Amino acid sequence: MLGYILRRVLQLIPVFFGSTLLIYFLVFAMPGDPILALFGDKTPNAALLASLQDQYHLNDPFIVQYFYYITGIFRGDLGDTFSGQSVNDVLARTLPVTGRLAVMAIGIEFVLAIIIGTVSALRKGKIFDNTALVVSLLFVAMPIFVLAFLAQYFLAIQWGWFSPTVGAQNDWGDLWLPAIVLGLSLYATSMRLMRGSVIDTLNQDWVRTAYSKGMSRRQVIPTHVLRNSLIPVITNSATNFGVLLVGATVTEGIFNVPGVGNTLFQATLRHEGPTIVSFVTVFVIIYVLVNLVIDLLYGLLDPRIRYVK
Amino acid sequence: MSEKAWRKRVLGSLAVAAAGSLALAGCSSSGSSDSGDSSSSSIIRTNGSEPQNPLIPTNTNETGGGKILDSIFAGLVYYDADGDPVNDVADSITVDDAQHLTVKIKEGQYFTNGEEVTADNFINAWNYGALASNEQLSSYFFEDIEGFSYEEDSELTGLEQVDDYTFTIALNKPAADFALRLGYSAFYPLPDAAFDDMDAFGENPIGNGPYMLDGDDAWQHDVEIDLVTNPDYTGGRTPQNGGLDIIFYATQEAAYADLLGGNVDVIDGIPTSSLATYESDLGERAVNQPAAIFQSFTIPETLAHFSGEEGQLRRAALSMAINREEITDTVFEGTRTPAKDFTSPVIAGWSDSLEGADVLDYNPDEAVKLWAEADAISPWDGTFQIAYNSDGGHQTWVDATANSIKNTLGIDASGAPYVDFASLRTEVTQRTITTAFRTGWQADYPGLYNFLGPLYATGAGSNDGDYSNAEFDALLAEGISSEDVEVQNENFQAAQEILLQDLPAIPLWYSNVNGGYSEAVDNVQFGWNSVPLYYAITKSE
């Protein structure tokens, strides 16, 4: 078990270098000089322009710029934004916000998926099942920004249940609206998986055995059915996590959430190499770690799955 | 608690008291007295964006940081709602001749850390901003002062202290409108404390303006900055409210949603998606007025078929082929004003009846005729293209303009999109661009010269089309050398009449400032630079 975890963590090293190199290259390949954009429609004096470009190593070849970046990382320095803030600070400020948002969204997703999926399975073909299918198709088909704008317009502006944007108040309780939007945009696939999985499990021998021993539905469903049905849903949530990061970027913009997605978007507009690379790298590392945790969760849910060797 | 923090708290409660007494004059305010909450009803909440640079006056050249600096600093002059300069820190500014000024400042004015504002605070701040190695984005504001150099570190020898409250400015070339420029943020004074650690200062600036930062953590990066009134400020911009919360929005959509939801009081931008409806949403609380922003597309002199007599004919034909009225109405929902010249209607000296301005009117018959005359000199081939950056919402109007040209002249015309602003500007700056391209100019100060000198004078810094006309240069030089504003503007108007013949850039329209405010606030006026005059806003609630 420990060896397995260690091997998976060591895999992070090539993932780290591979992703930073690739992203740095992509940023480097973006056309245009970001320093020129700082001056708007005004053309800066050549001497000033050159000295600013030097400051950010923009005239150096790609591999030299990358070298500056990587050596910085080993000193614990992720570089600076064009406004002179350290990327470390920016990350430390924005990650917790997005973290809260993600946890809430996943929570909403799971609760909805498990409850609606299970009830649908138990009432297969009935009106609840059919309604849930139509509603979930609607959420899958609707782009997240449409969902977000609708929620903002009706729930916040028209009915006043929430504040239209988040801004400075970004504690747990203030993030409900974007979290609901994110959760709704994710729950549909999980719900369908949960439904299918519960139907499969209900047909398993051990479920029939349990019933034949005289156990009630109330005893069988939570212990024997749900626990075994969760595995595909959890597997799906690993891939969903990537969708979540993309969705967070969109919802953070619409609800003005000061998180990583919002900052990454702004940094991309400004061609701010260090910010983009650091943020995306952190995304990649989190993604890999989340997948590791989820793989380990299988073992807890189903003791037959073990990571020996 | 440190002494500084303590002092801030005291000042903060003073601000609360001041705000409370103001609120009494209006209508009853909620009664609690000892906490910051009691003043929150008179705090104006407005939109902004995270400053792109630390808050150092000479290193801030964008509106996000600019509106904060304008609130927390007082310069020699400020601009009133009409764009006229009014003395702020200055007692008097005397223009001795087109190259020499004498500035007297009022005694007894203080920075919020207790330092008195003296002549040296201006001289040192300007020297800092001008010094080449300090790499300040707004250093070009000092290029007219004697001693300035872009190439090497050199002192501004043209600044001389006479006594504690008087200094003189000597310019290296005539710039009779220099006094008018002094309201721009690059010319703000800095306290001595700033020079100890400029980086730290940029994070937590100490000013002398109507507002000041509400404590050490007033600036929450990417989120908002909170300002409270500065009780020591004695200039003409005394706040009629308790403070400003400037909330940073990533998108205009979010700010507009907050205005509709009652979460913000004043915004100075309306998202494109709501331009068609915002006037009916907000009624008389909608703002739509011309701003000091001129938009055009530039045709480089080097473009084939666009120089000499043929070029003049083609430029005029293109200009007359564009139906500006229709495009501003349909594409922009009336939030642009068709151009009548090369400046802006909010600037003193603007005229809509310059000789030759009819070249800016839609006149398809004349356009076809001129184009044919040009074809007689050298036949046209290929496509006429206007380059633009796709990240700025320009596609619709570029397409509409190209269509207007195409339909009128019967030639191929289209937009040439660049992925973003940086890549377009890179090609423009390096002169590798092979098409016409969109250009815009937002004035630094409310003077006609600012729209002409930097853009069309031979060899000027932002002369992206490499236009050169000796007659035009001479008129500009004559205008800028005269101390008489009338004479200045006459020359600048005559210079524009030359531009209307040569059309180095095709004027399109002036941007309007589009904004709105909530029912909670009154006395909302927008300044010449499209930013609300925050100090004048009152809030009852």
What does this structure look like?
Chain A has 309 residues and is mostly helical. Chain A has 13 helices and no strands. Chain A is globular, with a radius of gyration of 24 Å. Chain B is α+β, with helices and mostly antiparallel strands. Chain B has 2 domains: 44-265 and 518-539, D-Maltodextrin-Binding Protein, domain 2, CATH 3.40.190.10; 290-512, Dipeptide-binding Protein, Domain 3 (Dipeptide-binding Protein, domain 3, Roll), CATH 3.10.105.10. In chain B, strands 12, 13, 14, 15, 16, 17 and 18 form a 7-stranded mixed β-sheet that branches. In chain B, strands 1, 8, 9, 10 and 11 form a 5-stranded mixed β-sheet that branches. Chain B has a 4-stranded antiparallel β-sheet with strand order 4-5-7-6, covered by helices on one side. In chain B, 54% of the residues are buried. Mean pLDDT of chain B is 90; it is low at 1-40. At the A-B interface, helix 3, helix 4, helix 6, helix 8 and helix 11 of A face helix 6, helix 12 and strand 17 of B.
C-alpha Rg of chain A (nearest Å): 24 Å
N-end to C-end Cα span of chain B: 33 Å
The total beta strand count of chain A reads 0
Q: Largest interface, with Cβ-Cβ < 8 Å?
A: A-B, 54 and 55 residues
CATH-level-4 superfamily name of the largest domain in chain A: MetI-like
The CATH class of the largest domain in chain B is: Alpha Beta
Shape label of chain A: globular
What summary fits the major beta sheet of chain B?
7 strands, mixed
Structural class of the helices, strands and pairings of chain B? alpha+beta
Strand tally of chain B is 20
Largest sheet of chain A: none
Number of helices of chain A: 13
CATH class of the largest domain in chain A: Mainly Alpha
Say what oligomer this is. Answer: heterodimer
Signal peptide (chain B): 1-25
Biased composition (Polar residues) (chain B): 43-62
Pfam families (chain B): SBP_bac_5
InterPro entries (chain B): Peptide/Ni-bd, SBP_5, SBP_5_dom
